[in-house]
Design goal:
With about 375 residues, the chain is mostly beta strands. It has two helices and 25 strands. It has a five-stranded mixed β-sheet with strand order 2-8-7-4-5, covered by helices on one side. A five-stranded antiparallel β-sheet has the order 10-9-12-13-14, with no helix packed on it. Strand 24 and strand 25 form a beta hairpin. The longest helix has 20 residues. The chain is elongated and about 85 Å long. It starts with 6 loop residues before the first helix and ends with a strand. About 0% of the residues have low confidence.
Length: about 375
């Protein structure tokens, strides 16, 4: 018996199949979350950083996953910027960005890491509270990794932060005393030269105590990179690997010492520091500093300074050896003398009579000063 199928029956089946396809398609359409990113918060909105909390978890950003209508894996990015740079044509264009792992809805920072972001990357002033803007960006890309037509969504907040001046342990040449001169076995300020640019040029300030009474003291320099010992080459200003004790005579209280391991040379310059600035007509002799061999700090007392004016540290009656700031905002001392002649003059914050100190004992890159 032959079965006949009604053409109308085929039409019904086709309509049902088409309807199912439409429903399946509509259930897989990605949409921009109307509510944006919910619950974006920081564990603290007023954060003060210091060496004491450098290794601790100090800040956590958290949020709720946005609903795109379908299952997707967005890329989450935290953006940090100054409030003044978050509007206008290039809004958020200078932001520092930190990616969040795709499977996480939170990001935690240790004190040292967040301090580096603030002081080094955002160039915020240290030891001062500043307001920053933080924006969370959620972005969905195509399977190929290319940008999709779905626009990013954001959530933002502001917070008050106070970064600190961090100490960088640069590569160093450590002083090892010879004969009767006993020096610390561990890395110690006052007994090292550092390479602030991580190259083969080292600088620091050393005392030769004249322990043996003949105008100098034998010493060698031990590299923290590879443990090599550098000593006497063919003269007082040359080096050799494994050489004997370095010495020079006479040996002044404190000297600027420069080593070039490419050229295998060492040079010494006796120093006496002065304060030169607007308040003394930039004299290189009117405001001398006094060196304390016990604390290894240069000090000038009863120094009159005027708010809004500037000064620098000069040496030996000239600007050939002088120190200023690398940036006015964060106040890190840098060599500003010959032949580079760089740096920014040190600004005076308040008018008054102060004690000014200069500490060169920690090596190049970690020189510090104070005005109190």
């Amino acid at each position: 018996m032959k079965t006949l199928w009604n053409p109308f029956f085929y039409l019904i089946l086709f309509s049902i199949a088409l309807s199912a396809c439409k429903k399946e398609k509509s259930s897989n359409v990605m949409t921009i979350p109307a509510a944006g990113i919910k619950g974006f918060t920081a564990s603290s909105n007023n954060l003060s950083l210091s060496e004491a909390n450098a290794e601790k978890n100090v800040l956590t950003f958290s949020f709720t996953a946005p609903d795109y209508g379908v299952k997707v894996v967005p890329t989450y990015t935290l953006q940090f910027d100054l409030p003044a740079d978050t509007s206008g044509e290039n809004a958020w264009g200078k932001a520092v960005e930190v990616k969040i792992p795709a499977d996480s809805l939170r990001k935690t920072f240790k004190g040292a890491d967040f301090n580096a972001l603030l002081a080094v990357q955002l160039l915020l002033p240290v030891e001062v509270s500043s307001t920053i803007a933080v924006r969370l960006k959620s972005d969905v890309k195509q399977n190929s990794g290319l940008a999709s037509e779905v626009k990013p969504i954001y959530a933002s907040l502001t917070m008050l932060v106070k970064p600190y001046r961090s100490f960088v342990e640069y590569p160093a040449l450590l002083v090892k005393g010879g004969n009767s001169w006993r020096t610390p076995a561990e890395r110690t300020n006052g007994y090292l030269l550092t390479s602030a640019k991580f190259n083969d040029k080292y600088e620091g300030y050393l005392d030769l105590p004249n322990a043996d009474g003949w105008g100098g003291d034998a010493f060698t320099l031990i590299s923290t990179k590879d443990g090599k010992s550098y000593g006497w080459g063919t003269s007082a200003t040359t080096l050799s690997v494994g050489g004997g004790g370095l010495w020079l005579t006479p040996a002044p209280n404190q000297m600027k010492v420069n080593v070039d391991l490419d050229a295998m040379t060492i040079n010494y310059t006796p120093v006496h520091f002065f304060i030169s600035g607007d308040d003394n007509a930039w004299s290189t002799s009117a405001t001398p500093m006094v060196y304390n061999a016990n604390t290894r700090v240069w000090t000038a007392s009863n120094v009159s300074l005027t708010a809004g004016k500037n000064f620098a540290f000069t040496c030996n009656g000239s600007y050939d050896i002088s120190y200023k700031l690398d940036k006015a905002e964060n106040g890190v001392l840098m060599f500003a003398g010959a032949p580079t002649w760089g740096g920014v003059n040190i600004p005076v914050a308040k008018t008054g009579v102060f004690t000014v100190t200069l500490d060169m004992s920690a090596g190049d890159g970690n020189y510090t000063y104070s005005v109190k």
